[in-house]
Design brief:
alpha+beta; 4-stranded antiparallel sheet; globular
């Protein structure tokens, strides 16, 4: 009987831990396609169209990145950083507004490669 309450208490805690752990890997659905970290700006625009706003928000230093592309083609699956001389890259922000009933998304690119996707609240109706 001592294990009964413990099992009841651990179930929700483990469920919450799994949700928190997986929250870092956000993706963006555009139509029937998915945009994920590691994709290039050109690929994202081809899938989602032009963003509502686009701006360069700074620069950062990054090691040279080497991509491992599957033999059958497709998007890069692994990214390795070369510890050589760092390169200055542009940090770019895209905002996608999908309207007042859907969440807006903020995408951050470093050197043209998507590194972060986050939700930034509900969208709005654009004035024309």
């Amino acid at each position: 009987m001592a294990n009964g309450p413990l099992k009841v208490a651990l179930g929700p805690l483990l469920g919450m831990a799994c949700l928190l752990w997986s929250a870092d890997a956000e993706a963006l659905r555009c139509g029937n396609k998915i945009v994920r970290d590691g994709m290039h700006e050109v690929q994202v625009i081809a899938i989602c169209g032009e963003p509502t706003t686009r701006r360069d928000i700074g620069r950062t230093l990054r090691g040279r990145e080497i991509y491992a592309i599957p033999r059958g083609g497709g998007y890069p699956v692994d990214r390795y950083v070369n510890p050589g001389v760092p390169t200055e890259v542009v940090v770019t922000e895209y905002i996608y507004n999908f309207g007042p009933r859907k969440l807006m998304r903020r995408l951050i690119f470093e050197g043209g490669v998507l590194i972060n996707i986050e939700s930034i609240g509900y969208g709005y109706i654009e004035k024309k």
